[in-house]
Amino acid sequence: MTVLTDDTAFEALGEALVRGHLDLLARLIRDHALVEIDPTSPSQEALDLIFDLGFFTVATFEEKSGLDFGGVKHLPRVAFERPGPDGETEFVIGSTILHGLVDEPRLSEAYRALAPAAPAPARISPQAPARAAPSAAKGPAPMPFKIDDHHKDIALKIKHDVEGHAQATVDHTLISYSRGWPGTMTHVPIPNPQVWGFPEILEQMIVEVAAGRGIASPKTFLETRVLHMIKDRELYPSYRADKHQEAAMLKAFYVDGDGKALLFT
Q1: Bridge partner list, 175
Q2: Rounded Cα distance, 87 and 150, in Å
Q3: Interatomic CA distance for residues 212 and 231, integer angstroms
Q4: What is the pTM of this model?
Q5: Among residues 112, 14, 95, 111, which one has the least CA distance to residue 53?
Q6: Strands across the sheet with 215-216, in order?
Q7: Chain segment 95-130, per-residue pLDDT in tens
Q8: CB 202 within 8 A of CB 162
Q9: How far is the C-alpha of 26 from the C-alpha of 42, rounded, in Å?
Q10: What does the alpha-carbon distance between residue 44 and residue 46 come to, in Å, rounded to a whole number?
Q11: I need a surface site. Which of 76, 144, 169, 217 has the fewest CB within 10 A?
């Protein structure tokens, strides 16, 4: 038996595993007699519940507090088994945190897949006004809104305590976040998209707000996400002082400080 570290293969396999898990979870909940959730129009409360179920069931297999056996702490982790070139079994591991792949867009995708197929579009009647033909001119398509105006609008909503909005700079890029299903982020292309996916950006925004470098309005961040971020950072080895300092800062702000008002359950 050989254990191999292959981050590329592990991330791709982990993505497929998480998507399959969320698809299964969505189908089970939809079909359960005790749960009434309309996949075509689920309530925010129902979707928050599904996020918790998906997030924590995956996180169970990456629990860093460990399990004791024989006086020794054992840490669970995910590995993928495959046949090796000589017929020997290989186990593939990687650095991707799988529970970090459980986010609003992926859950929303799982629920959209359960909805009935949309009917074919009807033909436009002769009385209906004709749409203008697409322009053949070269160049970028016009934006539906000016991004600077959108950032100003989000900042104004936060100033007036309109629930569910945040704004912070991540990787030299101003991000405006609005809670919803899925949550939406508005920004120009981020310099390192291979590093900054939706969950990574959202977690960094939570950190930036706690550090006073970002702003947010009430009931914007999911409480269980923030608590897991704190626990995750506390379990890093002692030499990762930066992670432990970050955990203390998050706890001081969101658990013991004014940041409580920014969380929803």
Answers
A1: 168
A2: 57
A3: 21
A4: 0.53
A5: 111
A6: 184-186, 173-178, 165-170, 215-216
A7: 888 887 887 677 777 766 666 544 444 444 444 444
A8: no
A9: 11
A10: 5
A11: 144
